[in-house]
Write a structure and sequence with these properties.
Radius of gyration of chain B: 20 Å
Number of helices of chain B: 12
Protein name (chain A): Branched-chain amino acid ABC transporter substrate-binding protein
Strand content of chain A: 15-25%
Number of helices of chain A: 13
Number of strands of chain B: 4
Oligomer: heterodimer
Mean pLDDT of chain A: 88
Shape of chain A: globular
Strand content of chain B: under 5%
CATH architecture of chain B: Orthogonal Bundle
CATH class of chain B: Mainly Alpha
Distance between the termini of chain B: 42 Å
Largest interface: A-B, 50 and 56 residues
Structural class of chain B: mainly alpha
InterPro entries (chain A): BCAA_transport, Leu-bd, Peripla_BP_I
Strand order of the largest sheet of chain A: 7-6-8-9-10-13-14
Helix content of chain A: 40-55%
Order of helices and strands of chain B: HHHHHEEEHHHHEHHH
Shape of chain B: globular
Radius of gyration of chain A: 21 Å
CATH topology of the largest domain in chain A: Rossmann fold
Structural class of chain A: alpha/beta
Keywords (chain A): Signal
CATH class of the largest domain in chain A: Alpha Beta
Number of strands of chain A: 14
Number of domains of chain A: 2
CATH topology of chain B: ABC transporter involved in vitamin B12 uptake, BtuC
Signal peptide (chain A): 1-23
Low-confidence stretches of chain A: 1-12, 14-41
Domain Leucine-binding protein (chain A): 44-383
Largest sheet of chain A: 7 strands, mixed
């Protein structure tokens, strides 16, 4: 029996390898609208967009991809000397796929800049490839703290990191929500553990009692975690991870009769959390995000115009990271509009960016981090995610 | 360290048993096919996935917005189970016809059948992710996303046991799962077709000489295995209300583990292995934290196999006595 088991283990490994291989093959997707077929002409530069465009977490990558596309289309419509074509790379959030796509983008497609990679895990692996090829890149959604500590010269992001987001959410949990006993769960991912630890650390300095646990986002049964939470009787729960896991956890918590306030970070800011948890169970859930999502009660004219243009073009409201995707692409377009046509020149111009974007004022510090660091709190109400306000000023009604 | 487990022993036990019952139902498919063909049907996890999809489709088609009650609820549940069972049993038989029988007829090695199983597994996953979920479930571009399923019954607490709330849906799942297994056990031990299955698993050559139609037995085996996985899929939807194209992967590995743990080829072993694995996972998570759940479960598997290489109840189908 034992040799049989060993053989089976090998078979499983082959199965996994095959799955990964398939994902890699299916990774490439066609360019978006506005593509110019005479791409080889020097009058057109190619900018990539990389992220999970068809996978489980594509709900938080398609909006920034649309935002970036909108920026490109608006730019091309002004008939500039050098036009821009956006090429999409579907990494399905898989680091291995992201690396091979980055190589394709550099060697075959000869991109001069890249918006992405969307997530932290894939960024960690794929950015070094871009760095070596000296391709400037701006992520609209990778929030892991450590990314800025690699000394990368061509890397930037337009969202504050988890080191900003985590403590801001923790301050809100201990402040506005007045929770003393908090249970923190993470999904063991690069992102989930990072933000979970940031929340844990800040809550402890605020004097709250913190209990913790971890879960597997691919699993469905979270009863052991739920039982732990039920016996800890917390005032608030924070989950570090993506919406698929958050929805399942939230549903099982409410079904067990746990009524503590449920908090999560930007990875859970998607309607999918309501669908997975069920609207009655999701009601009242609070989700923090460094992102600025246009709401129906918008007063800022610039944001209003962006939301209207976006809706006209894509037939949907701009969701998470749509404004950030637009701003990231705009930083590149401003550089190209200013006469930069090589990757190096674009990188230099992007580093000096200083303009009012849709999501925030866009300016980078030398490590590539954005200078503006606001974190916003959103809440599920009546099956919709609504903006509650800036975490430093928002209150729970 | 242990006070967490001791403090909420019953909640962990109940959740472990519910999950274990679902593991057990899926494990039956692995164990039966192994018993008859000496083949690990790796595509069985996708047969389970198809069961969840069919049940989810029923809930979607019924257009449920509020949980049902009374006869509507009973009808809805029956429809879910029937759809799940029928879809899974049908696809399991189709799978056998397309992926295994041609190989078996040509005398291909068991490894070839194993590769065919892996291929079928990937094929079915991608089929759902690329075609069926976007089109049949009308979710374009979201084939790989998790799908939420509407709540079909209110999850009311039925009674409390040692501080643990036992919900009506949990009782229903446990009773249904055990009921299915008892029926199967009777079928295999008391009927003519069951005798055929046992004979084939003991000695296929002699069984043929004794007038057993092997093709028919193999078909029935896949049918029953698929049926059990489909019912498990329906119960899974009832309990968790989510599914996706790759939902079977992790559960399939666990169910396969349960089958090996109980003694592969042994029907009662599958049930026992499932319940045992469900409990160990939850107790392990209680003591060491949920991140360690799988580590604990597989460590126990290795330990059990070290001392009982053929699993808890021993290897083959024929040894399961009435």
């Amino acid at each position: 029996m034992r040799p049989k088991i060993a053989r089976l283990g090998g078979v499983l490994a082959v199965g996994v390898a095959l799955t990964v291989g398939l994902a890699a093959c299916g990774g490439d997707s066609g360019s978006g609208s506005g593509g110019d077929s005479s791409a080889a002409a020097p009058s057109t530069l190619k900018i990539g967009f990389m992220g999970d465009l068809s996978g489980e977490n594509s709900g938080i990558v398609i909006p920034p991809s649309n935002g970036a596309q909108l920026a490109v289309d608006e730019y091309n419509a002004t008939n500039p000397k050098v036009k821009v074509e956006m090429i999409k790379y579907d990494s399905r959030a898989d680091a291995t796929t992201a690396v091979s796509l980055a190589q394709t983008a550099i060697k075959t497609d000869k991109i001069v800049a890249l918006v992405g990679p969307a997530f932290s895990g894939e960024s960690k692996q794929a950015v070094p490839v871009l760095e070596e090829a000296k391709i400037p890149n701006i992520s609209a959604s990778a929030t892991n703290v450590d990314l800025a500590k690699n000394g990368w010269k061509y890397w930037h992001r337009v969202v504050p990191n988890d080191g900003v987001q985590g403590p801001a959410i923790a301050d809100f949990i201990a402040g506005a929500a007045a929770a003393k006993n908090v249970f923190v769960v993470d999904d063991k991912s690069e992102y989930g553990k990072g933000i979970g630890d940031a929340v844990r650390g800040q809550l402890k300095t605020k004097g709250a009692t913190v209990t913790d646990d971890a879960l597997d986002p691919a699993a469905t049964d979270y009863s052991s975690t739920v039982n732990k939470i039920a016996s800890a009787k917390p005032d608030a729960i924070f989950f570090g991870g993506y919406y698929a896991g958050a929805g399942k956890l939230l549903k099982q918590l409410r079904d067990k009769g746990v009524t503590a306030k449920f908090f999560s970070g930007d990875g859970s800011l998607d309607k999918g959390i309501i669908e997975s948890a069920g609207a009655p169970q999701a009601e009242g859930a609070l989700i923090g995000c460094p992102c600025r999502i246009p709401t129906s009660a918008e007063t800022d004219e610039k944001v209003k115009k962006f939301a209207a243009d976006y809706k006209a073009k894509f037939g949907a409201d701009p969701l998470i990271y749509a404004t950030e995707g637009y701003d990231a692409m705009t930083a590149f377009l401003k550089a190209i509009g200013g006469g930069a046509t090589t990757a190096d020149a674009i990188n230099e111009a992007v580093g000096k960016s200083d303009f009012d974007g849709i999501s925030k004022h866009i300016k980078f510090d030398p490590t590539g981090e954005p200078s503006a660091k606001s974190i916003y709190m959103y809440q599920v109400k009546g099956g919709q995610i609504g903006l509650l306000g800036d975490t430093t000023t928002a209150t729970l009604g | 360290m242990f006070d967490n487990l001791l403090g909420s022993f019953w909640p962990y036990t109940i959740d472990g048993l519910i999950l274990g019952a679902i593991y057990g139902l899926v494990a039956l498919g692995y164990t039966m096919v192994y018993g008859v063909l000496r083949l690990i049907n790796f595509a069985h996890s996708e047969i389970f996935m198809i069961g969840t999809m069919a049940s989810a489709f029923v809930v979607m088609t019924l257009g449920i917005t509020q949980p049902l009650t009374g006869f509507a609820l009973i009808g809805g549940l029956l429809l879910m189970v029937l759809a799940g069972g029928a879809a899974s049993a049908g696809s399991a038989m189709l799978l056998e016809r397309i992926a295994y029988r041609p190989l078996r007829k040509r005398g291909a090695s068991r490894l070839a059948a194993l590769i065919s199983a892996i291929g079928a597994s990937l094929f079915l996953q991608e089929l759902f992710a690329l075609l069926i979920i976007p089109h049949v479930f009308n979710r374009p571009q979201q084939g790989r996303n998790q799908m939420g399923v509407a709540r079909i019954m209110d999850k009311e607490t039925l009674f409390t046991l040692g501080g643990a709330q036992v919900r009506v849906d949990q009782v229903l799942i446990f009773v249904a799962a055990i009921g299915m297994m008892v029926l199967l056990d009777l079928l295999v031990n008391r009927t003519k077709i069951g005798r055929g299955i046992r004979a084939t698993s003991q000695d296929p050559q002699t069984a043929v000489l004794m007038g057993v139609d092997i093709d028919k037995i193999v078909r029935v085996t896949f049918l029953i295995g698929g049926l059990m996985a489909g019912v498990a899929g329906a119960l899974f939807i009832l309990q968790f209300e989510v599914t996706k194209f790759s939902i079977g992967f992790l559960l399939g590995i666990k169910a396969f583990t349960a089958a090996v743990l109980g003694g592969i080829g042994n029907l009662r072993g599958a049930l026992l292995g499932g319940l045992f694995l469900g409990l160990i996972e939850n107790y392990g998570a209680a003591v060491f934290g949920s991140g360690w759940k799988d580590v604990i479960a597989f460590t126990v598997l290795v330990l059990v196999l070290m001392f009982r290489p053929t699993g808890i109840l021993g290897e083959s189908l024929q040894q399961a006595r009435a």
